[in-house]
Structures are given as structure tokens and as C-alpha cells.
Amino acid sequence: MTYQSPSRDMQFVLQELLQVPAMLASCGKPEFDAETIDQVLTAASQFASKVIAPLNELGDEHGCSMPAPGVVQTPPGFKEAYDEFTKNGWHGLACSPEHGGQGFPSVVENAVYEILGGANMAWSSYPGMSHATYVNVATNGSPEQKALYLPKIASGEWAGTMCLTEPNAGTDLGLMRTRAVPQADGSYLITGSKIFISGGEQDLTDNIMHLVLARMPDAPPGVKGISLFIVPKFLPDAHGVAGARNAVVCGSIEHKLGIHGNSTCTINFDGATGWLLGAANKGLAGMFVQMNHMRVLVGVIAIGLMESAYQKALAYAKERLQGRISGTRASGENADPIIGHADVRRMLLTQKANIEGARALALWTAQLSDLQRIHPDAAKREEAVELLGLLTPLVKALSSDLAVESTLLAMQVLGGHGYIRENGVEQHLRDVRIVGLYEGTNGVQSMDLLGRKVLGDGGRQMGKFLDMAAAFTETCSPRKAMREFAEPLAQLIADVRQLTSELVGTSADDPHAAGAAAVPYLRLVGHLALAWTWARMAEVALKHSESTDSIYASKIATARFYYQRLLPQTAALCGEIRAGSSALMEPAIDLF
Ligand SMILES: Cc1cc2nc3c(=O)[nH]c(=O)nc-3n(C[C@H](O)[C@H](O)[C@H](O)COP(=O)(O)OP(=O)(O)OC[C@H]3O[C@@H](n4cnc5c(N)ncnc54)[C@H](O)[C@@H]3O)c2cc1C
């Protein structure tokens, strides 16, 4: 079955929950009104279902190939789809008008990428990565670099990559060896080998702007000695005309579990010409601008994939006749649709609660990235920066973990048929698995949340987040209809507050306390964020309880399911966190 974009749910989130048009108007951007946003999402949905969804299975089966050394061919149809995306100006959606873009807010861009990712993750990752390089250069580039590169990325003529990983340096980028030697003309000669570079070579664009982390000869050791460079595949002249081939070559492509249509390349730099982007030895911080952008983006792409898998599971569950539903005698058929079975409903509602909760949370996070840039009040901008820092690892890790779990459930709904290629769910499962691994593994995201963002400031920022959630529960507790949500949420806020303060204490004495608690802590805070989000959605829906639009009744029913059936998992997480590090760290390695 063909992927359908979840337009009504996105409308609910963007317009009724987050009130994006009103927010944009108050930030001096009234042109992005509800109708305009709807038009963009409708056009994105059409492109997704008509152009890239039909290439999804084909891209998986065909994959990328290397017909000649250094040359990478994407699957049939990918280039034509890319050209159509380019012709229709999609690359520039969230780029500045100064560079030929349309200046749409990040929250709309992320909604569009959920739709594209749901239709074809492998294809969508090419423009997604390119836009992230735009964000990097727009933040860190000199005026000349911006003028030279950004219009080319915004128009889609050129693509961009991020080149961090090396064979011996994955999570620990301090170990990287790629060198950058300064030249008399202000450029650098870059030498080294990067692995796993997404879109590192392809046949979609005329040129590729590689953003490369490397060390200068006199750089301090570790992460403090890493700088960021622009290294184009073809060297541009001052007018942006791509000229001579640079010494950048794709050595090989990876054969991997999923996203076969997205090339994953070894890129060899053999004295390639590059230019410093941002300050010397501050390259990791510069690259984090792009990585943080990508973390939210891959989170929404994961949500798109779980939506796609859910759509298949739901359609199947309505048609597949197996067994009798307890207590019923259905019509002339010998069996009933499996959607009537309690366990199948458990699986479907878990997916629905995960998808809609994660979507609302991710789009709120994207909205914060707009607020940090455009809100007229400096204090509000600062508040958005802090919240965004806290929520970025959460959205990346939570969305991708939920996406894998939900897609597994979608497969389970189809029974053995889910394991069969032609039903499509097995591709989704293979494709979605990468999101928990790249852009920093989910273990590393959890350490970022607990180690850096929470314990790093003694729990202050987390305390502010909990205060915001608590203020919400206080405003809705007096309303009877909201009590079933407000009361358990208030209890969870108190539990997380207590647990965070305990962790601030234990981590002072135990160097392993944070590492041992990080993953369950992120999931616990994820539950809190989802519970808060579901309560907010229920509050909106309750105002329309008389409406004939079924979305409101559906929101209330799913919020109830979430609170009654999924939120109780928090008790187990609290127990796991309180168990501390001893059972993990005491066994000698030869006991494993
Ligand atoms: C398909 C694909 C596309 C990719 N695209 C890109 C790209 O475009 N650009 C790019 O630069 N890279 C890319 N990567 C690389 C990716 O970002 C890395 O694989 C990832 O960051 C993890 O590094 P690693 O594989 O070396 O794992 P390692 O760092 O070796 O980690 C192995 C395990 O150890 C854990 N671990 C490591 N260090 C710690 C620690 N300090 N504390 C606790 N646990 C730890 C990890 O969580 C993980 O579970 C891609 C990878 C793949 C597979």
C-alpha cells in the first residue's frame, strides 16, 4: 500500500497544539499563515506519494553501485526525482531569501521531512543532509563563503556532506587523524580517509561540498585540536563556477542492512584543497551546529518511517480474518478481522501513541529552534536555546528507539507476512535501524542528556523543564476532565525531580553513576515529555468533544491508552536507575 502523509494530524499539531501560525505572526513572520503552511504540506505530500514513494522498494532492491572507480550511481529514478525536487524549489524551503531560499521556519521543514522520510528514507536523506550543511555554513561561514556556497546548496545544484568518522575515530572524535596543512594562499591541503560518509559520492548533483573535520600541524591533542574545512569535489571560482577536480575520491561504498538507496562512502582526501570554516581548533563546536540540526531531522524521519509501517499494519489488521473475537459472533465469515483482538489493539495503539506523541514532541522541538532565532524577546530566545539543548538528544534517541520498537510491532501485526519482503514492513525495519546508530549513537545521546545537560549544571536546566511541566499540571488539575492526565503527570514530575537530585548526589562519588543511568534516564524523561505532550493534546481535544471530526475523540482515546498502558513503564525505569552502577561495573571482564 502507498504511504499517505498524516496531514490531519500534522495540522492538529502545528495549528491547534503548537499554534505555529500565531507564533510566527508574533515573531514578525505573518506570511507563514495556516493556509500557506497547509499548501506546503499538501505539495510535499503529493511529491512524496507520487514521486519518491514509488521508488522506495526499487531503491532498496537496486541499491547504489560503483560502475567505475570513484563513480557512484544511485538507484534508477533517484536522479529524476532529485531534479524534480530541485526544479520545484524544495531545497530552498528553509533557506534564507538572501541565498535564494523561501525562509520557511524549521518547524515546517521538519514536518516536510517527516513526510519525505515516511515515503522514502534513503532518498530523503540526500537533501536532508545537504540542508544541514547549509545550516552549518550559514552559522559558521565568512561572508565570502556564504555568498559562494549557500546559493548553490539552496538551489540544489550542489549537495553537502559531513565528514567526521574515521576507521579509528567514531564516537571518540579526539582520535581522528586527518591532517590539514596551511598553504601560503590561505587554503589548506587535507589528507586522510573518512568512512561511512552519507551521500559522499552520488550522481545527483554537479558538485559536492564536503564539510571535513581535520587537524592542523600545531593543533592541541584531542577534541580541542579539531578544525572544520570546506572541501569541494570540484574547485569553484569566485563566481561559483565549478572547475578543476579536487583530490577527493570515493574509495568504496558500504553494503548495509538498510537505506540501500543512500550511498555510504569511504572518502579519501589526498592533499585536497580546503578552506577553514569558522575558527581554528573550534571545528567540533562548529560541526555540532549541523549535528544538532540533523539529530532532530533524523528523529522526524524515523517518525515518518514508523507512520508508514503503522499504516501497513492498520490496513492489514482491518482485513485479515483470523479467529473469533471473544464474546462476539460476527457475520457470515468464519473468522473476524484481527483488529478486534485485544493484543492486536495493544500493538496498534502502542504504535499510534508512539507516533503521534513523538511527532508532537519533535515538532515542538523544531519550533524551539525557530523561537531561538526569531523571537523578539531576548529572554525568550535564551529560554528556547536552553530547552532546545535539553530536547535535541531526547528527540533523536527517543524517536529512533520508539521507531524501531513500533516498526517491530507493525511486523508482528502482520504475523509471518510481516517477515516477507513484498509486504514492505521488513524494509522499514531495516531502514529505520540506522537512526539509533548515526549522528551519535543513542547511548551517546543519553550521556549527552544526563551527563552534560542535566548533571553538567547540577540539574538546573532540568529543574526548569520540570517547573514548566508542573505549571501545566497546576493549571489543568482543577478541571475534572483533565485530572486523569494531570495527576499521574504531576506524580511523574515529582519522581523525576527526586531521581535527578539523587543522581546529582551519587554521580559526585561514583564515576560510573551517570553512564549506568543514562539510557533508562533518557527513556524516563522521554516518558515525561510524552506524557506532558499527550496531556496537552488531550486538553486541546477536550475543547472539541462535541465535534464530528473524529481526530478529537481519537486523541482522547489515545491519550488514555498512553496513560493507562505505557506510562506505568516509568516505575521499572526508576527502579533500574536507582540500582546504580555496581552490578554493571563489579564483574571482571572475564566473567562476561
Ligand atoms: C549508514 C551510516 C551512515 C553514516 N553517515 C555518516 C556521515 O555522513 N558522516 C559521518 O561522519 N559519519 C557517519 N556515520 C558514522 C556514524 O556517525 C558512527 O557510526 C557513529 O557515530 C558511531 O561510531 P562507531 O560506529 O565508530 O561506533 P563506536 O564509537 O565504536 O561505538 C561502539 C559502541 O560503543 C559505545 N560507546 C562508544 N563510546 C562510548 C562512551 N564514551 N560511553 C559510552 N558508550 C560508548 C557506542 O554507544 C556504541 O554502542 C554513518 C554510519 C552509518 C552506519
Describe this structure in words.
This protein is of the alpha+beta class and about 600 residues long. It has a domain at about 445-585. The protein has 19 helices and 11 strands. Strands 3, 4, 5, 6, 7, 10 and 11 form a 7-stranded mixed sheet that branches. It has a two-stranded antiparallel ribbon with strand order 1-2. A two-stranded antiparallel sheet has the order 8-9. Strand 8 and strand 9 (about 240-245) form a beta hairpin. Helix 3 (about 35-50) packs parallel to helix 6. The protein starts with 6 loop residues before the first helix and ends in a 7-residue tail after the last helix. The mean pLDDT is about 95. Flavin-adenine dinucleotide binds near residues 164, 170, 171 and 438. Flavin-adenine dinucleotide (FAD) binds next to strand 3, strand 5 and helix 13.
Gist of the model:
By secondary structure, this protein is of the alpha+beta class. The protein has helices at residues 7-17, 20-26, 34-52, 56-62, 78-87, 106-119, 121-140, 143-155, 283-319, 342-374, 378-413, 425-432, 442-454, 460-476, 483-509, 513-542, 550-566, 569-578, 582-585, and strands spanning 65-68, 71-73, 158-163, 179-182, 188-198, 207-214, 227-232, 234-236, 242-245, 248-253, 264-276.
